[in-house]
TrEMBL record:
Highest taxon of source: Bacteria
Pfam families in alphabetical order: GGDEF
PANTHER family in alphabetical order: DIGUANYLATE CYCLASE DGCM-RELATED (PTHR45138:SF9), REGULATORY COMPONENTS OF SENSORY TRANSDUCTION SYSTEM (PTHR45138)
An MF annotation (GO) of this entry: diguanylate cyclase activity
Name of the featured protein: diguanylate cyclase
Keyword field: Membrane, Transmembrane, Transmembrane helix
Gene Ontology terms describing biological process: cell adhesion involved in single-species biofilm formation; negative regulation of bacterial-type flagellum-dependent cell motility
Residues that span the membrane, as ranges: 26-50, 57-77, 97-116, 123-142, 148-166, 173-193
Catalytic activity: 2 GTP = 3',3'-c-di-GMP + 2 diphosphate
């Protein structure tokens, strides 16, 4: 995430699901903002062209720049609604949108100097248009209050400085009014941004509760399935193997496993599964599952044996049992991808192909348990 770091830190630490929801909301303003910027620029351009001798080439270049940047922002925000993308791609799109929208507002601010007309009526209309455009930056609050504030100030400040620079007291007064209005808009937007931050925090906590097993505090099956699909698509793009390990506790024939047993095993797994992209989850009442990207069949076999041996050697104990042993079914494969799989959310292969890997690991676990337990079996995957 480092190379995508920008001034939206509080936004980028949100869970991907919450982040995507915020971006889709921002994307819904794309067409409105495009037409607002384009029509406002056209109106202001005609007004200035009629009432002054401003260089026509400069005016045309400015108009084209506004239209192109507004269209680019619209195009960039429209890609927020494509939800089957990696976090890296999502961060890159946010960064691109922030850059384009900031340039757009800076170009509006430049009109306060490049297209300034020394006529009170034109200046009054120009000022009103700039205030309207500064308010159009408010949807950027969904990303970051500092960025929205910078964009609003970038629109207003050049015109305010230009007016304050003049000797005419009326223009100076108008400059003070404009500067004061900009400061008030920025300050007034802060409570709204704080409210949105609180809402995002509530969303994050709710999502964490939905994705966490209450007993072991590990990821639950819901989060595993979401993460599994993301890692499958990522591995298909990078052409790297993806492995699964399904762990079943052997001492379950005539008793219900106590919470202490689950917690003891969960703590061990959480301590040893810590690579980027790895995920350990409670799959159901009696099984745990480990997702391990970039892990080949030979590597997953060694990893499974390491887990089995260390759990047996550590003699994890709980109130119900003197010690725990586990059977492990594991499998690894090279995920395959297709154009349709990458583009269609409901493509059957997007579910069927990962299910083959999961089924192989589950069948391997069943075989290990049938062999008496406390052993590992590596399943074969045919894709």
């Amino acid at each position: 995430m480092g190379k995508y770091k920008l001034s939206t830190d509080s936004f980028l630490v949100l869970p991907t699901a919450v982040m995507h929801e915020q971006l889709v909301c921002l994307a819904s303003y794309g067409a409105i903002l495009f037409w607002l910027h384009t029509l406002a620029a056209l109106f202001l351009g005609i007004l200035i062209w009629v009432h002054s001798s401003t260089n026509t080439l400069v005016l045309l270049v400015w108009l084209v720049g506004i239209a192109l940047l507004a269209a680019s922002c619209w195009w960039s925000s429209s890609h927020f609604q494509m939800d089957k993308v990696s976090e890296e791609v999502l961060y890159a799109r946010v960064q691109r949108y922030v850059l384009l929208s900031t340039l757009l507002h800076a170009l509006w601010g430049a009109s306060g100097i490049l297209l300034f007309v020394h006529q009170l009526e034109v200046v009054a209309v120009h000022t009103a248009v700039l205030l309207l455009i500064s308010l159009a930056a408010l949807p950027t609050l969904l990303l970051s209050w500092p960025i929205a504030s910078v964009q609003m100030i970038a629109v207003i400040l050049p015109m305010a400085v230009m007016l304050l620079w003049l000797d005419d007291p009326i223009f100076r007064l108008l400059g003070l009014v404009l500067l004061t209005a900009a400061i008030m808009v920025v300050l007034a937007s802060r409570p709204l941004a704080q409210l949105m931050d609180n809402f995002q925090l509530a969303q994050r906590k709710l999502l964490e509760q939905m994705n966490t097993d209450p007993v072991t505090q590990l990821a639950n099956r819901r989060q595993f399935e979401q993460h599994f699909k993301l890692e499958w698509r990522r591995s298909a793009r990078t052409r790297e193997p993806l492995a699964l390990l399904v762990l079943g506790i052997d001492q379950l024939t005539d008793l219900d496993l106590s919470e202490q047993c689950l917690i003891a095993l969960a703590r061990y797994l959480k301590a040893v599964v810590h690579r980027a992209g790895d995920l350990v989850a409670r799959y159901d009442d009696r099984r745990f599952i480990v997702l391990s990207p970039t892990t080949s069949t030979d590597e997953v076999a060694r990893l499974a044996e390491k887990f089995r041996h260390e759990i047996e050697r550590k003699q994890l104990t709980c109130a119900s049992l003197a010690g725990l042993t586990v059977s492990i079914g594991a499998a690894s494969c090279q995920p395959q991808s297709s154009h349709h799989q990458a583009m269609a959310e409901d493509d059957v292969h997007d579910v069927a192909y990962p299910a083959l890997l999961l089924k192989a690991a589950e069948q391997a676990l069943q075989t290990a348990q049938e062999q008496g337990g406390n052993c590992i079996v590596i399943g074969a995957v045919s894709i």
